[in-house]
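Input record (one chain):
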Amino acid sequence: MTTSKRKFSMGNLFCYLGLIIIGIACVYPALWVVMSSFRPGNALYSETLIPSSFTLEHYSDLFEKYPFGQWFINTFKVAFFTMIFSTILVTITGYVFSRFRFKGRKKMMLGLLVIGMFPGFMSMIAVYILLMQLQLLNTHISLILVYSAGAPMGYLYVKGYFDTIPQSLVDAAKIDGAGHLTVFRRIILPLSKPMLVYLALTSFSGGFVDFIFANMVLSTPEKQTLAVGLFRIVQGRSATEFTMFAAGCVLVAVPLTLLFIFLQRYLVEGLMAGADKG
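The corresponding structure, as predicted from the sequence alone:
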């Protein structure tokens, strides 16, 4: 075995070992939560990962003691409409920056990038006061508006993807008399399926799992989302509700996990293609 091959093999070995360690660090806590959701009793601590006996009592208690079904409907509604509006807004923004040339274009792009670098919670007080003046507190519309309004700041991946579409296709359509709306609807969107799936999936998951802003806006149990409701289960309590909380976490993770599994091909294609050009 030559020196280069030996170095290559050792490099692969360290890479695989690192991946195994990272995999264990990621999977073990999730597996512990799943197993805890089936463990009898309410204790946080257990000597073994796999419980000696299994029970579905904690799952049934979620629906009997709390409006978990309503929380799920609320969360799905917020995430669905956030996905629709966010995808539309960020797609239009990316198309405008990709295909149009106008005064102040680069400054606007730079401004959106700089604003997007600041954490969202810095503006929460101002947004809260604005929603209070508009009488939108404790409503799902407020969550949808806030989540969707910030979506255009993530235009860069969309613009990069649109930049990969040949300009000759657009020019040919314009020669045939197509306007910007027709080009966008008939040419750009059909060729952007991976990017659209990526945008829809990330927008949906963002609205589905958000806690900080939803906890600040929503107050009544019938309006709460899953993240807020699960937090309220253990808020101000000891660890006696941990196994029920673990059952709720499993139910929250199932739909998102299935979405990522079925759409992972489009997710990877959208990420890689959007990074080809700036």
